[in-house]
TrEMBL record:
It comes from Thermobifida fusca TM51. Keywords: Phosphoprotein. Transmembrane segments: none annotated. Residues 3-112 form the STAS domain. Belongs to the anti-sigma-factor antagonist family. InterPro entries: Anti-sigma_ant (IPR003658), STAS_dom (IPR002645), STAS_dom_sf (IPR036513). This is Anti-sigma factor antagonist. It holds the Pfam family STAS. Positive regulator of sigma-B activity. Non-phosphorylated RsbV binds to RsbW, preventing its association with sigma-B. When phosphorylated, releases RsbW, which is then free to complex with and inactivate sigma-B. GO terms for molecular function: anti-sigma factor antagonist activity. NCBIfam families: ant_ant_sig. The keyword Phosphoprotein applies.
Length: 117
């Protein structure tokens, strides 16, 4: 399975849609996209992982790296994920305490807006 990446702006937030497998072979493409978005001034990101079928430690590292990058600009990086097998990885690694993990893009946007006001 390959990795498909897409992104669009929704309510002042850049939404990155990821589909496929995030592993040692495909993670560099996601890393490049996150770096590019931050460099272009997008500091509030949501990574929609609803169609991610596999995530390994390299993929986790890319997400953590992206989070550090946006936080350097007082930004946010939240995740949309409802798949139990992917959520389990975040729970085991303790990353549920680091990332905001939501059931929909709209929920993530609403939560960020409520924190700002």
């Amino acid at each position: 399975m390959d990795l498909k990446l897409d992104h669009h702006t929704q309510d002042d937030t850049e939404v990155v849609v990821v589909e496929g497998e995030i592993d040692v072979y495909t993670a560099p493409r996601l890393r490049e996209l996150l770096i590019d978005l931050v460099n272009k001034g997008h500091h509030h990101l949501i990574v929609n992982m609803e169609k991610v079928e596999f995530l390994d430690s390299t993929g986790l590292g890319v997400l953590v790296g992206g989070l550090k990058r946006v936080r350097a600009h007082d930004g946010t990086l939240d995740l949309v994920c409802t798949q139990e097998r992917i959520l389990k990885i975040f729970r085991i690694t303790g990353l549920t305490k680091v990332f905001g993990i939501y059931e929909s893009v709209q929920e993530a946007i609403d939560k960020r807006k409520s924190k700002q006001s």
